[in-house]
Amino acid sequence: MEEADEMVTPGEVLGRATDLKAGKGAYAASHNNTIYASLTGFRRIQAPPPASHDKRPTVEVTGHKAHGPVPEPGSVVIARVTKVMARTASADIMCVGPKSVREKFTGIIRQQDVRATEIDKVDMHLSFRPGDIVRAVVLSLGDARAYYLSTAKNELGVVSAESSAGATMVPISWTEMQCPLTGQIELRKVAKVVN
Amino acid sequence: MAAKPGSAPVTYSPNLGQKTRPPIFKDNDLDWVRPDGRGFHQCRPAFFRTGAVNSASGSAYAELGSTKVIVSVFGPRESKKAMMYSDTGRLNCNFSYTTFATPVRGQGSDHKEFSSMLHKALEGAIMLETFPKTTVDVFALVLESGGSDLPVVISCASLALADAGIMMYDLVAAVSVSCLGKNLVIDPVLEEESYQDGSLMLTCMPSRNEVTQLTFTGEWSTPDINEAMQLCLDACSKLGKVMRTCLKEAASASQE
Fold first, then answer.
1. DSSP character at residue B232
2. Which of A39, A40, A105 to mutate to test the interface with B (most CBs of B within 10 A)?
3. Residue A110 located in a structural domain
4. With respect to CATH, is domain B38-80+90-255 assigned 3.30.230.70?
5. Cβ contacts of B79 on chain A, cutoff 8 Å
6. Which residues form the Exosome complex component N-terminal domain (chain A) (predicted)?
7. What average pLDDT does range A150-176 have in this prediction?
């Protein structure tokens, strides 16, 4: 069930909290049980999923210009490695989920977060090189400097890397990549790319 | 930026509540008129337009009489390294004048006090928890100072934030009132501000009817404060409607 669209702006009343649930772009004020819009867009009402106990339909505001994505714990990001040190590697986050970020965010992959096994034997320099594109998951908001990223899963790790000869390398195992020009093998924490 | 014929700026004047005092002067024996010929309780026509700055995430331009301001919003982006860690988002405001904003040509400068007042007025209306650890920057620039600069900037900034897609509890509308002798004049121009006895600025979230900031300067009597606040609240709700119209126009224009 979808209702006719009506344009709303932040602060406009969408309905009563007793009749509706607040979805994306809307919020419920507890002091007067009213649902307000928090974004500019179209008011849209979604029927509740048939299985749920809550029979209230959800009201949301869609079709707006949302702000750029912000990394949050649990989100999968694509990042470019900028610096590799003995215990950590820094990476600039380029995409959060399917969306590219508008502003630069810095992330850190710590030695213990590179892979799931033998985490104390990880050599950062044999896992990443500056310029590598990695897929990682955001562990936490980290510290004041950076987000903490982790590649400790099969499908996480280096997805694209250039060899010293300048060609894009081909993954040959979960720790090795090979240059198609020279045949040289370089070590990486390779991601298992699932299509 | 001239107003298009379809969206001519509209003037509005607030209603006092039921308790209206009899006018101190009859209209015909007023010994002075406002420099721009407005009624004492008549606001300047307000013109708003969003999307004035291309490189910003969101922006808005506002023109009330000769007061012209532009506000750009950047982010949410990574907080500066020197900042302490914080779970919620941050708001960073900067208020500055261009070199040619005032009749006296001088150096365009940052205005620390106005920056922090702008911050306080907006902070309560933004859902800071929706962009954890990051910062939203608000840069306000007064192109021409024609009086009531801060309230115009605050209203304009809330439009710019809405344009940037920052989640907000409500828009923020701001109006100021000057006390000149026994008269209260709403939305004072620069000349009136220079000889005012006191001023009051009220910023509120019009649809929630909540005040985010209230500032007094000068000497006020209690009945005057009451009247001035009622004037401001009503003017804010009317200004809020003008702002909403602007947002809706911009949003429907981008749909086409």
1. H
2. A40
3. yes
4. yes
5. 144
6. 7-45
7. 92
B172-190 in b/e form (b: 16+ CB < 10 A) is bbbbbbbbbeebbbbbbbb
- Same-domain check for residues A44 and A80: no
Residue B9 pLDDT:
63
What does the pLDDT look like over A16-65, one tens digit per residue?
Answer: 988 888 888 899 998 889 999 999 988 888 888 777 777 788 888 886 67
CA B62 – CA B189 distance, rounded (Å): 15
Residues A105, A139, single domain; the answer is yes
A13: helix, strand or coil: strand
Overall average pLDDT of the A8-19 stretch: 91
Residue B36's pLDDT is 85
pLDDT at B4: 45
Q: Residues near A165 by Cβ (< 8 Å), separated by ≥ 6?
A: A179, A181, A182, A184
CA atoms within 13 Å, Cβ hemisphere of B227: 20
Residue at A54 is within a domain = yes
Which among B70, B66, B78 is positioned nearest to B94, based on CA atoms? B70
The stretch A64-77 carries a mean pLDDT of 85
Residue A130 has pLDDT above 70, yes or no: yes
Give bridge partners of residue B78 from the DSSP assignment. B134
Q: Are residues A45 and A119 in the same domain?
A: no
- Spell out which chain B residues touch chain A, with contact meaning CB-CB distance below 8 angstroms: 57-58, 74-79, 81, 83-85, 87, 127, 131-134, 162-171, 205-208, 240, 243-244, 247-248, 251-252, 254-255
Is B162 in Cβ contact with A104 (below 8 Å)?
Answer: no
Which of B85, B163, B207 is opposite residue A11, by nearest beta carbon?
A: B207
Q: What is residue A52's predicted lDDT score, i.e. its pLDDT?
A: 73
Q: Please tell me the total count of domains within chain A.
A: 2
Indicate whether this complex's ipTM tops 0.90. no
pLDDT at A96 over 80: yes
What does the pLDDT look like over B61-96, one tens digit per residue? 999 999 999 999 998 888 876 677 888 889 999 999
- Give the C-alpha separation, B149 to B162, whole Å: 20
Residues of chain B with C-beta less than 8 angstroms from the C-beta of A7:
248, 251-252
**Which structural domain, as residue segments, surrounds residue A29?**
6-62
- Is residue A180 in some structural domain? yes
- Residues with pLDDT less than 50, chain B: 1-6, 18-20, 28-29
Degrees to nearest 5, angle at CA A52 with A50 and A58: 80
In the predicted model, what is the mean pLDDT of residues A96-117?
Answer: 91
Q: Which two tokens stand for residue A179?
A: 């240059």
Q: Are residues A11 and B171, on separate chains, in Cβ contact within 8 Å?
A: yes
Yes or no, beta carbons of B57 and A102 under 8 Å apart: yes
